Amino acid sequence: MAKYRVVVVGCGGMSNKWFDYLALRTDTEVVGLVDIFIDAAKSMAERRQLEVPVFSDLEEAIEVTKPNVICDVTIPDSHRQVAQTALAAGCHILGEKPMGASLEDARAILHAANQSSSRYTVMQNRRYNQQIRAVRDGIQRGMIGKVGAIHADFFIGAHFGGFRDAMANPLILDMAIHTFDQARFISGADPVSVFCHEFNMPGSWYQGNASAVCLFEMNDGSVFTYRGSWSSEGFNTSWESDWRVIGSLGTLRWDGTNPPVCQVVDETKPHAFIHEYKKIKLPMTWEGQEGHWGCLDEMFAAIDEDRPAETDSKDNIKSVAMVFGAIESAKTGKKVRIEY
Ligand SMILES: NC(=O)c1ccc[n+]([C@@H]2O[C@H](COP(=O)([O-])OP(=O)(O)OC[C@H]3O[C@@H](n4cnc5c(N)ncnc54)[C@H](O)[C@@H]3O)[C@@H](O)[C@H]2O)c1
To answer: Rounded to an integer, what distance in angstroms lies between the CA atom of residue 249 and that of residue 213?
Structure first.
């Protein structure tokens, strides 16, 4: 019998990446599929040539197939119910972002995980990238000195069609979780407060506000600013965002596509009105898999080693709290203290 018996819940678009990954693990067997629309589960089983039972109810799937891992690739509104069912049955759960559709949902999931001996881990695939690992390592090693400010720009004219066009807070809720989590990952700092102004550009095809500017205070005294839009046309940034991190000795830049680079004061040259700088490339030593696959590798490794994964719910709640703090600030027009 395989070490990991997996039930996948939610057989929509994103689950394809998960099935691709699971198919390659030699210690893992998919033992059942669940979707509230049973036809979605049936056609996924057919497409993937998986001869496993399909269900519309997770509780029944667990009873019949006896899994030890549940992969939750459902919509955010379903994450709480899926997590509580899986954890109550003693299964580990690997779930898509965002952890919950509200901070209340995310807290309830964390509470259920804390009560259980199983773990709930969240997909934050944008941490798994050789370049962002080099950024984080460079900062942690003090290449630019003590960090005072992190700035991230995210501008992509994204024409999804479908539910995102109609949802409230599409940018902050559906996308900014990645950038906020990346900022915490890069800096090692956690959020204290946020001021956010959300708006819609002229000509925006989104009903909800698809643009935002946020200012976070972090617990190491630094600030993190975020400027983003899903309805700006021209000069798109990468999906990883375009970063400028400023420290006491210099600045690190990463556009999310090309290798990151630092410019620090050249102490071998005399100081001047504008100092001379030297350019330092960051060593790219990380050899893990990128994106979803890297995060899934870490999720399974954490179960193997009986430790919390990097994106365990205990950590991820802090990124989730940044999202809902920003939304509350945008609604009230006030600076919001971030609690998690
Ligand atoms: N990490 C990323 O980069 C990334 C990118 C896109 C989407 N996502 C996330 O992936 C998740 C799924 O997104 P998607 O694009 O595949 O959505 P989707 O709508 O294509 O698929 C979701 C599926 O879940 C099913 N479902 C909903 N509630 C259910 C429940 N309670 N039980 C069983 N099945 C249920 C739906 O019927 C549907 O088939 C979301 O949380 C989304 O935010 C992550």
So the answer is: 27
